[in-house]
From TrEMBL:
Entry protein name: Alanine--glyoxylate aminotransferase
A single Gene Ontology CC term: peroxisome
Family: Belongs to the class-V pyridoxal-phosphate-dependent aminotransferase family.
Catalytically driven reaction(s): glyoxylate + L-alanine = glycine + pyruvate
Protein species of origin: Adineta ricciae
Cofactor requirements of the protein: pyridoxal 5'-phosphate
Broad EC category: transferase
Residue ranges constituting the Aminotransferase class V domain according to the UniProt record: 26-341
N6-(pyridoxal phosphate)lysine sites (modified residues): 197
Swiss-Prot/TrEMBL keywords: Aminotransferase, Pyridoxal phosphate, Transferase
Phylogenetic placement of the source organism: Eukaryota, Metazoa, Spiralia, Gnathifera, Rotifera
InterPro entries: Aminotrans_V_dom (IPR000192), PyrdxlP-dep_Trfase (IPR015424), PyrdxlP-dep_Trfase_major (IPR015421), PyrdxlP-dep_Trfase_small (IPR015422), SP_NH2Trfase/AEP_transaminase (IPR024169)
Binding site for substrate: 350
Molecular-function GO term, any one: L-serine-pyruvate transaminase activity
Enzyme Commission code(s) on record: 2.6.1.44
Amino acid sequence: MTFHQVDHPLLVIPGSIEVSDDVLFANASPSQSHMSKSFTETFGAAIKMFRQVLVTERGQPIITAGSGTLGWDMIACNLTEPGDEVLVLHSGYFGQSFADCFETYGVKVTQLKAPVGQCPSREQLAEALKSKKYKIITVTHVDTSTGVLSNPQIVAEVVREVSPDTLVALDGVCSVGSEEIRMDEWGLDVVMCASQKGLGVPPGLCLVCASERAIKAVETRKTKINSYFASWLNWLPIMRGYEQGKPLYFATPPVQLICALNVSLKAITSKPIEERWTKHKQASTDFKQFITNELGLKQVPQDPSIAANGMTAIYFPDGISAPDIIPRLVERGIIVAGGLHKDIKDKYFRVGHMGITATDTETRHDLEKVKEALRNVFKDAGYTNPTA
């Protein structure tokens, strides 16, 4: 059967993203038992392929129903205990939210905040780690509110140099599948993400991968985990069972979403993951050059080296605001996102270019459609590039 999804506005927010026909069709698969042989094989294969995306052989995936926010809860409730010290690197809205999550569990949080459009420096990180003993450090790989790209490899290097017992957790919600991540090589202890961004699956799955060191920290903690659904001690036997072809039950998995994930991961892992990273970087570079050179607009990240490859955050020019641009884009069938960071909320907008929007340039031409629409709507709004 050949399936094609209905015509719809082009979704180019920084997640959820466009999904392929094959993935969407898999999400409509018939009902089946979550203990059946066929689903066990599907789920087990997805667990194995997720490791390939993160370039890890030793990490243990935990894939459950939920959003990326559940990943914060999993990290907080499993890897910290009340009174523990945590260092949160803050490059936007989602660093603050991660900190709020930790505080819910009675954890003492220190935030290392960077100005809007920047991320904490290596020197600032080293100084912070020397100031006190932290149980865990978190880094938001791409903060979706600013489009700032942090460098988890450098973060992990500094941790090993200054505070080697500190666990390193990566919030990869807006980076897994679109940005380079080498979990084992870089020494990351946890990577978390969600299905609806770089993995190209409808929303509804929380995906976490824990290192051997992180799992040991859970198994040897002194206090009881302060969550039932989010407890890795409940989920680890389930994940290991499905991967070994021996399904176990804790909570019913979202069968159709996992079927969709399986199809997406097959496509992603059918080629070297480095090719996917390169395509996202190429798409990002091309689109950002258009924004800078043709439209003459500034971006939120203050340096190109810290600009995400899966999205672009763009300041409106003087005299132009969201109501002048975003509704006009909607009229042309293009859906972008407005501002999110409270300090600059009304001053910018965001365009996502992850998944098939970035990788399928032969049949879709998504970003060319976005460029053409932006040319027209800014012209209609009375804007001309002052540097042209």
